[in-house]
Write a structure and sequence with these properties.
Layout lengths: L1 H5 L15 H31 L13 H4 L8 H15 L5 H27 L7 H22 L24 H19 L7 H18 L2 H7 L10 H19 L8 H18 L3 H7 L1 H20 L9 H7 L4 H21 L5
Amino acid sequence: MLYNLLFPFAENFPLFNLFRYLTFRSGGAIMTALLISFVFGPCIIRWLRRKQQEGQPIRDDGPESHLLTKKGTPTMGGVMILLAVGISTLLWADLTNPYVWIVLFVTMSYGMIGFFDDFLKVTRRNSKGLPGKLKLVAQFSIALAAGYWIQSVAPVEDATRLSVPFFKDFFPDLGMFYLPFVMLVMVGASNAVNLTDGLDGLAIVPIMIAMACFALIAYLAGNAVFATYLQIHAVPGSGELAVLCAAFIGAGLGFLWFNAPPAMVFMGDTGSLAAGGAIGTVSVIAKHELVLGIIGGLFVLEAVSVIVQVASFKLTGKRVFKMAPIHHHFEKMGWAEPTVVIRFWIIATILALVGLSTLKLR
């Protein structure tokens, strides 16, 4: 909004020329989102405590310590993240850019699904919220609409092409299979982040790491000079998503202030589904869907651990892990919660660096 309102007057007011730079507006988005989180965070937490009273229901089959340390902690803290991201993006992004609206659409829509899921958990005093099939139908429907929207905006010759890491001249055309692939990326990323959100601070830092990586990737892909130099797929207009990713970083830092152990509030599905959906959508627009599997490798690991656990139990009657997702497995092994969280942060950082290396190793 500020860009659209003030930049046209740059000739008369040179200071407004700053708004042409994505780096300046991304910095503004970070600080705005952080400020919103700090100002409204305590109010939102108090409101959630009043409404939820007993807080988020804790799984009876989970680590025993959770029944003592996490009981009474409110959930739906993702509302804070969505508020900060929404306002910051609307203030600092170029609102004529359709990619911004696509990512906001997915983010807020998935956030609403998560909100209803959290609401049912709290009101029913049960760790199960929306039926899994209904949740997936809603997620895939939103991803389908977003996929069509992206295809309508992208250049015709690139609309269904897939960029493959480490190969500079290999852009296979998926044709009719591209849309199902896009839907799978968005829904998969959303649910993988959701599965990771199980310990204080565990999910939000990897989310910020992934957003920082894709802010850089979107910026480079949107710049013809940098894209040509790095020999990556150029996506005109995608650079504006750096502002939205930056807003997520600021909102994440603000949320971490309240989510650091011992957490004052949980993100809930409201935040995790929305953040995962946003990461997946940005990766699709920037044509780095496969790189998401590396940068978001921690999320993939968490999701795969659940798939393996369920498949093993159904096929053999035995469990591979003491508990899934895998972060609970390490808790059951005796690792302290902060140990699990910090080591997973380290893993997320290493994988992010490996993912970014694909920009040059071609």
